[in-house]
Each structure stands twice: as C-alpha cells, then as structure tokens.
Specification:
single chain, about 290 residues, alpha+beta, Fumarylacetoacetate hydrolase, domain 2, 2 domains, five-stranded mixed beta sheet, 8 helices, about 15% helix
C-alpha cells in the first residue's frame, strides 16, 4: 500500500486513484496516519475487499507530477533518528573515518517538511543529502535484528538538508542543530508498505535540473535497516511513527572539490526506486 497525508487525512494511493480512508471506511479506520500504522494488516484486508470508489485526481502518477496536495506523511513523529556516514564512499568523500557502529544523531521534529516544500536557505553553505527513511509501525525496546523488519510500517524518501557552517562551528560538530531549520527534513511523497518494496537494493539519488548530484544504491549501506532498528531500540524505546533517516550516499556538496552548496532558485528532486520522489525549491529569506 501507499499511504499519503492530504489535508491532514490519510489517503490510500493507487495507480487508478486515491481515497480518504476514514471517510470510505465509515470511520472504521482513523484519518490519522500514526493510528493507521498500528492497523496495517486490517487495513490491507479492508482495501482488498471493500468496494472503494477511487478519485482519479489522486492517482499515483498525477500526484508525483504535482506534489502540492501532499503533506508530510508523518508530521508529528515523537522521535527522528538520523544515521551519519552509513555509506562508505560518503565517509571517504568527507574525510571522516568509516564508523565501527552506527553514528546516531537527531533531526528535531520541527524540521519535518512536505514533499514539495519550499525551503528558505539560512546561509549559502547548505547541502543536500538524499536518504531512505524508515517509518516505525510497532514500537518496542531491545528488538532483535531478526525481528526488526516486523517493526517497520513502511518507507519514504527524505532529504537531510544540512547547514555546514553551523554544523562545524564547534568541536565536536553539532549535527542535530544544524540540520533542523524549518523544512530541513522534507519527506514523502507517501509511506510505501514493506510488502510492496524490498529496500536492500534500490537506486537512490537526487538531481538539480539535468545535473546529477547523487547516484547510489541502498545495497551500499554499511548498516542495514534491520541493524539500525535493533541498535536504536537497545537505548531508546521506539514508538509508532518514529522516523529513521538511514544515511546518504556519496555526492554531497561538502565532498566536492571545491565544496559546492545549494544556490537560491535551485529545485532539487530526490528519488528512490519504488518509493517515488520529492521536489524542493530553495530560496533566500527576506
């Protein structure tokens, strides 16, 4: 299933059209995405059996062409985890050591943005980082790696926008703070459930106009999604709707020689095979 948030209500998105789940189910299912993530088995059975009238205006291809109706699929996560240096080539391009265990930081929840959000550049040293985002369905602590994927409700595309001057203003670097300006965590276009996609080997990348910025594959991740879920749960209680930004492949602006950063007027499209795309325009503030 593909589950999108439109006007603060969860919609089922298909190739033929979309449907407001709470309305179509007569209130059996909530309009709230977090609540639905705990009912995916029942929701799937209902979607397969119910006689649903689909709105062709909410078809998958149409929404990907025009992202404006879409909200962030999860706008109020309790926790947003992010993993640094989870692709070896990205570690090498930044000159930082490949981590022996996951390098964890957070993006504060107020940085969550829509898949088509306009983003204000606080400086001219802001960087792009396309990422696979895992969404927690079933929470818990001390989750085994073998059972970890059963706790995933689905996946979406994300950008970990990073303001590099603030990030490296102090020693040690302040990752979380510098990555949490408004809309610095755009996600979407929707949550795709695990039955529709296997994330172990997906093309992942982003571009500006015809220029490719990043071109990688999730098979290059050092720590798998299962490993990350298990690792995080040994310290933190994972909760329904939590987000895990799983790291970015090489090709970020900081790794260019000389470094290259997002310019006002740029539109960056981030895409992951099987999950869709998000598109964000960047401008300077007034």
């Amino acid at each position: 299933m593909k589950l999108a948030t439109i006007n603060n209500r969860t919609h089922l998105i298909t190739a033929a059209g979309g449907v407001d789940i709470a309305h179509a189910s007569g209130g059996r299912f909530s309009a709230d995405m977090k609540a639905l993530l705990t009912q995916l088995v029942d929701l799937q059975a209902w979607a397969e059996e119910a006689d649903i009238a689909l709105d062709p205006g909410l078809a998958e291809a149409r929404l990907l062409e025009d992202l404006s109706p879409l909200d962030a699929p999860i706008s109020n996560p309790d926790q947003v985890f992010a993993i640094g240096l989870n692709y070896r080539a990205h570690s090498e391009e930044t000159g930082l050591d490949v981590p022996a265990e996951p390098m964890v930081f957070t993006k504060f929840a107020s940085s969550i943005g829509k898949p088509g959000a306009d983003i204000v550049l606080p400086t001219l040293t802001c960087d792009w980082e396309v990422e696979l985002v895992a969404v927690i369905g079933k929470g818990g602590r001390n989750i085994s790696e073998a059972d970890a994927l059963n706790h995933i409700a689905g996946y979406c595309v994300g950008q970990d926008i990073s303001e590099r001057t603030l990030q490296f203003a102090n020693t040690p670097a302040q990752f979380s703070f510098a990555k949490s300006y408004p809309n610095f965590a755009p996600i979407g276009p929707w949550i795709t459930t695990p039955d529709e996609v296997s994330v172990g080997q997906l093309k992942i990348g982003c571009r500006h106009q015809a220029a490719t910025l990043q071109d990688g594959n999730t098979a290059q991740m050092i720590f798998s999604v299962a490993k990350l879920v298990s690792y995080l749960s040994k310290v933190c209680e994972l909760r329904t709707g939590d987000l895990i930004f799983t790291g970015t492949p090489d090709g970020v602006g900081m790794g260019c020689k000389p470094p290259k950063y997002i310019e006002p007027g740029w539109v960056i499209e981030a895409e992951i095979e099987g999950l869709g795309r998000i598109s964000n325009r960047f401008e300077v503030g007034s």
